[in-house]
Every structure is written in C-alpha cells, then in structure tokens.
Amino acid sequence: MKKCCLAVDIGASSGRLIASHLENGQLKLNEIHRFENKIVRKDDQFCWELDRLFLEIKKGIKKCQGKGLKPESIGIDTWAVDFILLDENEKPLTNSVAYRDPRTDGMMDEVFKIIMKERLYLETGIQFQKFNTIYQLYSIKQNNPEILDKAASFLMVPDYFNYLLTGKKANEYTNATSTQLVNAFTKKWDDEILDQLGIKREIFQEIHNPKTVLGTLKEDLREEFGFDMKVILPATHDTGSAVISVPELDETIYISSGTWSLIGVENYFPICVTKALDYNFTNEGGIDYRYRFLKNIMGLWMIQEVKRNYQDQYSFAELVDLARQVQEFKSTVNVDDPRFLKPENMIEEIQRYCQETNQAIPTTPGEVAKCVYDSLVCSYQQAINQIEEIFERKFEKINVIGGGCQNEMLNQLIADTTKKIVYAGPVEATAIGNIVSQLMAVGEIEDINEARTIIKHSFEVKKFSPSIITA
Ligand SMILES: Nc1ncnc2c1ncn2[C@@H]1O[C@H](COP(=O)(O)OP(=O)(O)O)[C@@H](O)[C@H]1O
Ligand SMILES: C[C@H](O)[C@H](O)[C@@H](O)C(=O)COP(=O)(O)O
Ligand SMILES: [Mg+2]
C-alpha cells in the first residue's frame, strides 16, 4: 500500500477527496472521490446536508484501500462562516443553516446599535457580509435565545467534521477569523465583542493554527476503515488553503475562483484603515499568521444558478462557448448587489436588473452567460483598482486559482480588461494548500517557502497576456 495524505476540500458547489504524496520533489495528486454540495430547504430554512457530506467523506476514505493507498493523515477544509451548536450531550441544536439563509436580514444594523461598525472593523478587520457568523449568532440570540442558552459547544463546519472523526473539539484559526469575532491583533476570540452581544464565551473552543495535529480517529472509525490516520488541521477555511498554494505571489493579485471569487493579496499585517473599510476589504487569517487581504465578489455562483435555471442542459464549458458567440452583447450588472445572493431565479433577476438600468435584456443562454462573465470582470477590475489605491502601487500579475481558472475565455477577458498578465492554475489549489499543510505538520516539507517551490514545480500554470488591440 502506498502511503499518502488525504485532503478533503468541500466548497459550496462540490466536494472532493484528493490523495497526494511527494515524488522526486513533486506533489502527485490522485482524485479519490468527488461529490455535489448544495443548499437545500429544510423547515423553511436554507441548509447544508452535513450528515450526507460526512457520509461522502467516509465513502472517500474507504475508497483509498481499493486504490492501494494508505492515508497517513487527513485534513478537512470547507466554506467559511457557518457552524453547528452542540448541546451538553453533543447533539446539534439546530439545522445546518447555510449562510445564504435570510435569517441574518437586518442583523448587521441590530449589531451596529450595540457596537459601532467602525470599531468592529478596527478590532476584527473583517469585511461586512450580512451572513458573517456574528450576525448568524445574533439572529439566534434575538429570535431563539433558548438555543444559545442550551449551547455548550460552537464548532465551525470543518471543526464539526474533525469532531466526528476524532471526538476532539477545536476551532481552527483561519476559519475562526471569518466569524468577525476574532481580534485581528490578539488573534483570539474577542471577549469584549462577545460580552457586548451577550454571546457566552464558554461555547467557543481554543483556537488552533494550521499544521496542528488534532488527534487520530475514534475507535469505531478505526474499525470501520481498517486503519488509523492523523487528523491534521490545514487552513480549514478553504480560501485560506487556496492562498497557500498560489504559485505566483510576488507582484500578484490572486483570484480564488469558485462559487465565490475571492480577490486579494497576501499580507503580513492587518489593514483596518478607513479606505479598506469603505471598500469592504477583509483581513482573514492565513497560515503562519499571515493575512488574506481580500474581498468577496459574488463569483461563479451566478453561472451555477443560471446553469440550474436552464435545468442543467448546458455544461459550464458549453455556456462559455455560447457566450463566446455573442461578443456584441454588452449589458452588465453589479454582481455584488445583494439581490444576486439568493434570487428565486437568477436569469430573471439579471433580466430585471438590465431592464431597470435601461440596458439590452439578455434572452439567450449565451447572452445571459456573457452578461455574467463580463459583469464579474467589471467587479474584478474595480477591486484591483481599490487594492492598488490602498497599497499605493501597481500589481503586474493576476493568478486565478480554483475551478474557475478552467474558463479560458474568462481568463483572457480578465487579461484584456486589466491589461495584466493572468496566470491560471492550479485548479485544485485549495486541496493542494490543504495537502502541503499536512506535509509541513509532519515535517515532510520544511515551511511555506519550500511548499510553494514544490507547488510551482508540480503543476501547470497557463499564461494569458492582454490582447494587442490593433487600431
Ligand atoms: N470546464 C469548465 N469551463 C468553465 N468553467 C468551469 C469549468 N469547470 C468548472 N468551471 C467553473 O468552476 C466552478 C467551480 O469551481 P470550484 O472551485 O470547484 O467551486 P467550489 O469550490 O466553490 O465548489 C464552476 O461553478 C464553474 O463555473
Ligand atoms: C461565505 C464565505 O465568504 C465563503 O465561504 C468564502 O469565504 C469561500 O471560501 C468560498 O469558497 P468556495 O469554494 O465555496 O467558493
Ligand atoms: Mg472551493
């Protein structure tokens, strides 16, 4: 049996288990299992199917032996902000409510009545998204206080899966920062904010950094799988893992392109200045206490919903080809308008927006897709301008990572619009960042610099130069 480590990366639209080992200084990947992730309706709430996702994780682990692989460690990363509250008997107190659920509508303003927006930003450095954990918890406090009274443990989604694997409870740092409840300077839970909001501190676990060996499998799982593994904390916020594996970082702005587009730079200190607040940038925690100075852009969620609205009769590649065929269609929308966060029908919402703004209304799948892609690039350009204004410098390169880097039309459009060199890849950047964190934890890789060198020599990165427009 070949030794390997196992990365579990679950984004908002898909999950995958990828086995990996080092061979002649290169990282080799072997996709073991891939599955759909989606938001479902349950008890009139938008929810994740965490029980199904854990079964998918176990299914993937069991596939390893059939492939002659013996995983020595496993690391789990997922989307951010969402959590589970366990009671004193370790039972979940609520559904696995998703961040797109409207339960946080109006909660930001309720919190600002207690803690000024500017102070919240100065202390946490985290962007204001209506679905941040802080507003989810405050919604529970306002509408179902008995739930918070009964709560004994707060676990974010990857923490919860780690608990199911090991029986150990911990909050991992990079994901904890996405809650907007961690102080950007002390890097600990912000007792003052929790106290002012009346959220009891004792439900939060000790914060552990990426590369922590949390433990090994519970006995029943060792017997079920037939082997034991170390359970290691990668950057359990998926974007935190993705940024670790950006091959081109100097002079570079990254775009982690999946359900969301996370656009930013790696930094060594939090930037909580007024301009960063006004432009709604975040300082999410990274590995080795680095910072991910970035902002959320609505992302490929929009094309995922368009695809769903067309009953999945077009693949993503086909939607790109259809968009290529209507280059004359120029209408765009503000992708970051909250109306696109969870519309009933994305196509109709885009059409309504174009009508309201007196633009041509997209009617064909190609026109709708082109409108989405063109609109995303407009938002990318705006964010890039804001980053360069804040850093008072130009960035020469853009590195697109994640599933979206497979969209070569979009990559070229980004290059043409921004007039910057675009590098595309690696596709599985998140899983790769997860893997190298495990290998650093066990000493197979020295540090992040060696990790990035290995990554650069292991994966193809395609280059897109701005087209030369002849007069
Ligand atoms: N062949 C392709 N052509 C164009 N876009 C693609 C292709 N494959 C995947 N994508 C894009 O990648 C996105 C998924 O990226 P991924 O990083 O897996 O998302 P997440 O981690 O959020 O689930 C899809 O929504 C789709 O827009
Ligand atoms: C809700 C958060 O902003 C979101 O999780 C984002 O931080 C993120 O990591 C998205 O990752 P995807 O792979 O789901 O695009
Ligand atoms: Mg992802």
Protein architecture, described:
It is a single chain. Strand 17, helix 16 (408-418) and strand 18 form a beta-alpha-beta unit. It contains 18 helices and 19 strands. It is globular, with a radius of gyration of 22 Å. The N and C termini lie far apart (61 Å). The chain is an alpha/beta fold and 471 residues long. The model has no long low-confidence stretch (mean pLDDT 97).
Outline of the structure:
This protein is α/β, with parallel strands linked by helices and 471 residues long. It has helices at residues 50-66, 107-112, 117-124, 133-143, 145-150, 157-166, 173-177, 191-197, 219-225, 238-244, 274-278, 301-309, 316-324, 346-356, 365-391, 408-418, 429-441, 448-458; strands at 2-10, 14-23, 26-36, 40-42, 45-47, 69-78, 83-86, 153-156, 171-172, 207-208, 212-216, 230-233, 252-257, 261-267, 282-285, 291-297, 397-401, 421-424, 462-464.
Task: Tag the structure with descriptive keywords.
single chain; 471 residues; alpha/beta; seven-stranded mixed beta sheet; six-stranded mixed beta sheet; 18 helices; 38% helix; 22% strand; binds adenosine-5'-diphosphate; binds the ligand C[C@H](O)[C@H](O)[C@@H](O)C(=O)COP(=O)(O)O; binds magnesium ion
Question: Distance N terminus to C terminus?
Answer: 61 Å
Portion of residues within helices: 25-40%
Oligomer: single chain
Q: Work out the strand percent.
A: 15-25%
Which strand order does the major sheet show? 15-16-14-13-17-18-19
Q: Tell me, rounded to a whole number, the average pLDDT.
A: 97
Radius of gyration, CA atoms, in whole angstroms:
22 Å
* Uncertain residue segments: none
- Tell me the number of strands: 19
| Ligand species | adenosine-5'-diphosphate, ligand LHFEOU2G, magnesium ion
The largest sheet is: 7 strands, mixed
Shape descriptor: globular
Family: Belongs to the rhamnulokinase family.
Function: Involved in the catabolism of L-rhamnose (6-deoxy-L-mannose). Catalyzes the transfer of the gamma-phosphate group from ATP to the 1-hydroxyl group of L-rhamnulose to yield L-rhamnulose 1-phosphate.
Organism: Priestia endophytica DSM 13796
Enzyme class: transferase
